[in-house]
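ARCHIVE CARD
Drawer: 12
Card no.: 0347
Subject: one protein chain, sequence and derived structure
Cross-reference: see card 0346
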Amino acid sequence: MERRESFRESMINGYRFKGDSILLGGAMLDGECIPETYIRVPLKTMNRHGLIAGATGTGKTKTLQIIAEQLSEQGVPVLLMDIKGDLSGLAQSGEENKAIAERHQKIGLPYRPKSMPVELMTISGSDGVTLRATVTEFGPVLISKLMELNDVQSGVISVLFKYCDDHKLPLVDLRDFKKILQYSVNEGKEWINAEYGLISPASVSAIMRRIVELEQQGAEQFFGEPSFDVNDLLRHDDQGNGYISIIRLTDIQNRPKLFSTFMLSLLAEIFASFPEQGDLPKPKLALFIDEAHLVFSEASETLVNQIETIIKLIRSRGVGVFFCTQDPTDIPYKVLGQLGLKVQHALRAFTARDRKSIGRTAENYPLTEFYQTDQLITSLGTGEALVTALNEKGTPTPLAATYMRAPMTRMDVLSGDEIRALVTGSNLVRKYEKRVDTVTAYEILKEKIEVSQKKEHQEKLKKDSREAPSPRKKESVIEKVSKNTMVRQVGRTVARELARGLLGVLGVGTRRR
């Protein structure tokens, strides 16, 4: 009894906060839920990022759902990257059943079903808001990673991006990208080589083949305009609930490169677009990355350093990033050390390697007199998790085995009719559904080539006859768009260069207006 009271006092004191918080569930001791001993996370520290980990079937997705819906209810917009396609139920109210009623009775918390405002999104043309980005926004480093280029080929990409920046050539889609590659080894070879150094035709040919591979994978649907404005993630409904934007990625599970580079591009765009916030009473945006191992499985040391830099800096923009994965060791230790909230569901020890991994995982949690952490991790039931967070002073809370509450929203996916109704009523779908055809690098370079060819033809004619009439001068495509292109690009180019310099990588750009 004394141990129980000591535990209860420790949990109550450790999870008592002055400001607003989200409630995850009730504290457990010796496999028993202690009623009305609630485990909370202060909203103020939800921009310090987090981790949700555990084996398949232990309740990770439901925990993600619980945190997302409570943030939304507190007025925090949420962005979910849904790899498995099982989060759309957030748009509908849950239904109480016997299991839910018993769970909430043990916690000492009434069950309250509720639906949340949801926006479905896609990067591959399925139902929802079409997310696009320009080639310029992706930048040379992420483009190179996406195409798995070597160092020499990546250098060619960096040179051509610099040339396009310097000469105000908008790289919007893959057609623009292919055109600048062709131009660099043909009509523009002399000027580019003189100004930026020699570009190997062999490297250009190899890059061109990789672009064709991207097109065959459907990547051309993602590149283009209008590019998505990340400020559209910060919407609220009439009741003040933050919108939950769900990017449905079920159809790109076999393309982890596209997923990971898209995620990094989005983080860089958010970082560059959102102003410095300082310490806020609650996050401006919370971003959840399901199946996070896809981001890091083939990441180079340089790329991991870039992610670590973004994670460190983006919280100053009021943004919290949460990784959801099976094993905490899927996350590089440099990134793992930046995560304030940790929700650890059960892990299974089938092999000696598994047992070593569980031992390393247990070392990431605060020491406690109430649990044998490495043993408890393997014995947690479904819907139970070890939780530690940062309190309002930024120090870790006591480790708490937690009996998780049930989601307020539906624990199943939407039907086809429900998805269509949600998409039909979306204003954002109408805003982004039509691709914009603007004057870009393709048209500008095409005219340059035509002018060059025409000039060569005229010089040939002059040799035959000095009296040949000069062609009537008319306004070119370049002249027509120069003012518009310059005005549209100057402000964003400044922001892009600042973001690239701050992140230490030339390849992270911002949106071209």
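Annotation on reverse: The radius of gyration is 27 Å. DSSP finds 18 helices and twelve strands in the chain.
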